[in-house]
Amino acid sequence: MKNTSYIYNEKKQESQEIGSMKTYINAETSRRRMKKRIFIDKAARILFSFTIVFALFVLGLLLYRVISESIGWIDLQFLTSRLSISAEKAGIKGVIIGSIMLISIVAPVTLFLGVGTAIYMEEYSKKGRIQSLINTNIANLSGVPSVIFGILGLTVFGRLFNLGSSILAGGLTMSLLVLPIVVVASQEALRAVPNYLREASYALGATKWTTVRRIVLPTAMPGIMTGSILSLSRAIGETAPLVVLGIPTLILSTPAKLTDDFTALPIQIYYWTLDAVLTKEYANLAAATIVVLLILLFVMNSIAILIRNKFQRRY
Amino acid sequence: MSNFINRKQNIKGIGGLKFIDSEKAVPIILMLIASVSILTSIGIVLTLLVDASHFFREVPFREIFSTKLAPLKENPSFGFLPLIAGTFVTSAIAMVVAIPIGLTAAMYLSEFSSPSRRRILKPMIEVLAGIPTIVYGFFAYSFVTPLLMKVIPGLEPKNALSAGLVMGVMIIPLVTSLSEDAMSAVPDSMREGALALGSTRLEVTLKVVIPAAISGIVASFVLAISRAIGETMIVAIASGSTKNFTLDFTQPMQTMTGYIVEFTSGDVGIGTGYYSLYAVGLILFTFTLIMNLLANYITKKYRKGY
Predict the structure, then answer these.
(1) What number is the ipTM of this complex?
(2) Do B108 and A41 touch (CB under 8 A)?
(3) CATH 1.10.3720.10 spans which residues of chain B?
(4) What's the DSSP call for residue B61?
(5) pLDDT per residue over A129-170, tens digit each?
(6) CATH code for B77-302?
(7) Looking at domain A76-311, what is its CATH homologous superfamily?
């Protein structure tokens, strides 16, 4: 404000000096106009910051709502018992195990496919048509709605390979869904490895594969791990593909093999939310399951951030 | 001397398999791995096309443009216009929420806030994107709808409005972070030029930064629409499964994604009803693909190099 008033004082003097000459710049009006412009600027700043406050307010409301609905429902009994029709007796032991088994398929499969694809594109393929083809393809895949991946899983894994709605079918479907995330993260990690490390390795007589295996991959590992954990947290919260696979509504047994039918945290939230119309307590069970899911996601994302901060090196 | 030869052989070969030359084998193996992503795309398109053709063999193409959808009746009718209307209404409501809030939040983060404040606020906004959509569905159904029912009389317990509003909140971080990236990419020299001419921050933002970043901003809107069209769990829970052709957002409406979820989670068996979900899937896939390609085209075509 001080600066502007200084400028305008000068202008005022100028227009006084000109005196009798007809001037188009009137100091009074221009000062008023400037004040108005500055006022609008300040108002906009406040308005814009409010939109952020609003978004964060909704986030807070959502968390508050979920937590307050779940209070009194999360206890040892809830975490260690099996599913039950009775809301008081119901527990999510089998659901948690289902989610963990799902992740135990998604993690190795996406890591293998995702890192392999990234290495091929960054280290081996020639910059050109094949690379841009795969890149475009991955960009488009990441835009495909998850429910479409569900249809793919249902048709190919469920019906064609006859895996039904087993953990294997769910895990493979989910792996394809999160594959683009791992590929893009790994590509960025590999690209961040400086070329002089590769050249030093070649200069010592190492072959290309040795260089990739011993030098490039270990250096890029923190970035790859961060991306993989983030992709897993996507997989653990994703519902639509599993629903499309046709996971049965209520399974009372805990899955033991990879070919068993299963249920996972988001699926159980879905069914309990839908059934809350009939039994009111199911809404509390859904909220309690959401809290478990959110805690799991929070832990996974914290690990990803820790890895990034601890091992991140800038070259 | 023999030691030297052994080592030389060791360099070739993976582990103990000395008869495989890893330098030649590895690129081939990696290429096969990389082709999985392409196979996935081909798989999606083939699955949808092949099984949708089963559907179109039994149902005349004209019928999908009718407004009557009754797949499980004795004389089933497969008009997909109710689903397209439902998708359109929920997505439009979501955009009304996500575009203004997302863009102004991006303007604040990129042009008004101090760097230290941005470092705190941006990750907080992005937490919204990390919450699973099923949680938003629960929130919409058990909190937003009862709240809206107090304000709007005649609102059904399942309705397009609350699904659309919550979906909009879910999409805010997508619009914010993509628009913010586009605006941050505008060089400071342009801002300084405008500031030196006496512009206020707001004028710089509206008249210099946004025009310069417009391709990225519009692309973020298009991606947001694509995201809204493909969103499943929020609408499956909060928007209901009534297959009425209407644009009244206080009523329950089914979207394309909601139809797919309803039809696969029930035991429908294999019949025309089952194949209809592939036809709907094909329409959905086409819509989102067009949106994604459009976003890509806008960024490429109108990108300005500074």
Answers:
(1) 0.88
(2) no
(3) 77-302
(4) G
(5) 888 889 889 989 999 999 999 999 999 998 889 888 889 999
(6) 1.10.3720.10
(7) MetI-like (1.10.3720.10)
